[in-house]
Amino acid sequence: MSAGKVAQARRKNMKRPPSYYKKLRRELKTKGRTAPKQSDNTKKSTASLLKKWNRFCSEIDESPESFIKTANAEDFKTFLQWTLDRYQRIRASESLNNYWRVLNMHILDQSGRELDHSIRRDVTNYKKVLVDEYQLRRLPKKRGVSSVDDLYHILFYHWVYDTTVYRDEQQRSYVATGILMASYFGCRPVSMFDTRIKFEDDADARKPADHPTVAGHPEDHSEDLSDQDDMDWDDEQATLVKPDSDLDHDGDTSACSNDDSDGDTDSDSDSGTDDGVDAGLDDTGSLLWRHITFIIAPHCDPGEPNVLFAKVTITHTKGEDNCPREKIFIVEREDNPLLCLLDHLLSLALHDDVFAAKSLRTVSNIFRAEIPSGRKCLQLKIKRSALDIPVFREPGRAADGYRTSPTKPLRSKTWLRYLTQLGRHSGLENSFTQYCARRGLVNAINNKAPSSVRDQIFDYQLNIVR
Hints:
By secondary structure, the chain is an alpha+beta fold.
């Protein structure tokens, strides 16, 4: 039973007396305002601003906590100019706007004080004066956009000419797969990789147990210990998990499911178990194998190989804490193997040994799997132990050298380093990032698809390209 169903069952059986709500009302009144649920990125931005505010208050002999509740327009204007004087790396007007926005948000969240319109307008006008006085950059820096030719060029260079030595050659496959996925889906790094940041906050009960920026340590996988107990793993890098063999089944039909089946408790409607793409403890914040479903269908011509396609569900999007949404993409075969995302995903799945059936260990067995008559398609089951394994994983160091970690998701910083290095070596004019592929897809879709379709793909709102 999924976590959502358990919560619903507990709610139905829960009946509280009136005295409970009377007591709860008194307790909530005592606690006061409820703190907002903020992401770690927002917390880090707020903490950085408060350090500047505390230093500013110490220099003008004011208490930071009380002064922020009583400060007026002249105080905030002085603080912004003090920030520009103290931190000369601030060269863009957008940075100044962001400081003011975060300060407004913190004042409202912590003290419940909403600044008057006259104060906000006065400070906004003074910001324009500071922008002119300090010659801050008004326009954003030039952003790279990749076209179809750029995509082909960089992938061809990656596979043919690139001499970069990766810590583990599996990372080379990750780079090609990630570039294709970003180019076809137009997604941000948060949809595929671990973008969490390190934020030390003892009062934050929602802090992930394993921050990607924290120096790694041997994780406690008491149920996943490898048979290689004598291996000496490095503290900063890799962990081992036992290969799953419990759910291996003989026969092709047991490894598949179809949409017309009535209720096999060992099969998934979405990912090979009864959990679904949104079940499980997703502590990685990245793309997992439960988010990818492989399906085979019989070819229209008898004797021909099966038709394979994949369904990729994107569950992590920008602003998912406030507006969670889910996007589904269907991936089909492409004649050019260099541009075929389906082949790349299938190769990663076979390498990670994620399919439950022992018979599905080769490409030929998948394309020649027998589909029972009367079924339109079959879904390839994923091992239950593989559902929560990230598709892209971080390289780690073990006793016998570097290898890809079995559990640790690939960090967005590592991914950015791969792309910028590849773009530089391949001779691209501008720095190559995942957003270059995203902007290229935006240009390809503009004026060719309805604005509603474009906005849904790229997470735009109100038909405005931002």
